[in-house]
Amino acid sequence: MSESAEVPLPPWGDAIAGAVGAVLANAAVYPLDIVKTRLQTQIKKPATAPETNEKKDLEKGSAAEVPAHHDEHHDIYHDTLDAVKKIIGKEGLGGLYGGMFGSLLGVASTNFAYFYWYSTVRHFFQRRNRSTHLTALQELAVGAVAGALAQLFTIPVAVVTTRQQTQPKSQRKGLIETAKEIVHEDGVSGLWRGFKASLVLVSNPSITYGAYQRFHEFFFAKKPHLAAWEAFVLGAASKSIATLSTQPLIVSKVTLQSKPRPGHPKFKGFVEVLKYIVEHEGLRGLFKGLGPQLGKGLLVQGILMMSKERIEVLFIALFALLRKLRAQRLAQAAARAAAVLPK
């Protein structure tokens, strides 16, 4: 820890550490990403059951659910396990990894941009305040600014990836081809679909941070530094609160970025998506895919932070070694220069 204070990482070093950690974390749980995206982009509504089956449905105490408009290329998933079974059954094990390259590219670019801007903006606040300490409100502002800038530059990759993840294997195209398809349909602005929802979702890391600080103060008030497992548990708990608070917006953003299914309207904004989902699926529909969303978020955050911390330690050690070697070379050069000077 003392080394990090002596040799702080530059913004690009922090950005690389965050990007690598995010790629490792998301690669480890990628199937959950596919499943939650498929669950969040399907829209179901109560079926008009045949008269012979209506009584059976009522006896079971639940209305049957069918797609709002039947599409032979898309299955309807009832839960996480059902989605996994149907994806493997129809597309093979590789179906759980469809669009992975584009997704990891998006993860790497988003996290690189986020941590770069976070480090840059944070240093700006520190210089302005002439202090290394920031208030909780300033920390939240730093995270919000960094998140907004990261989304502005990287959302096109997320739009393309979401389109790939929601397409059946038989219709799935490569990264460039998918981007061209989106531009052909909606123009260049189509690559920024869901941007407003993404900006609102900048509140997600802000909520995570605020909850984490409150948990720290409540459970470990006398400990300035937490053990790895303590940080992981508090991080997971705070991430759960942030996800539960913003899940409807997450569903809305993913729906906006996916290709409209046959019979579904082409949404213009996230409020329109929210109204449509509530109309067809009720309030519960705003939280579809919550299980895999939570699972993915908790695992990704844990692996990301552990990986990022280790990479930062390596970078700090490397920078310290480079500075030491540079100092040695300067000392040797000075000694040689002194030796040739006339006495």
TrEMBL record:
Residues 43-71 are annotated as: Disordered. PANTHER family: MITOCHONDRIAL THIAMINE PYROPHOSPHATE CARRIER 1-RELATED (PTHR45939:SF1), PEROXISOMAL MEMBRANE PROTEIN PMP34-RELATED (PTHR45939). It comes from Ascobolus immersus RN42. The keyword Glycoprotein does not apply. Belongs to the mitochondrial carrier (TC 2.A.29) family. It is found in: Membrane. The lineage of its organism: Eukaryota, Fungi, Dikarya, Ascomycota, Pezizomycotina. It holds the Pfam family Mito_carr. InterPro entries: MCP_dom_sf, MCP_transmembrane, Mito/Peroxisomal_Carrier. Residues 52-71 have a biased composition (Basic and acidic residues). Keywords: Membrane, Mitochondrion, Mitochondrion inner membrane, Repeat, Transmembrane, Transmembrane helix, Transport. Gene3D superfamilies: Mitochondrial carrier domain. It is a multi-pass membrane protein. The chain crosses the membrane at residues 15-35, 95-117, 137-162. GO terms for cellular component: membrane. Solcar repeats lie at residues 13-124, 134-218, 226-314. It comes from the Eukaryota. This is Mitochondrial carrier. GO terms for molecular function: ADP transmembrane transporter activity.
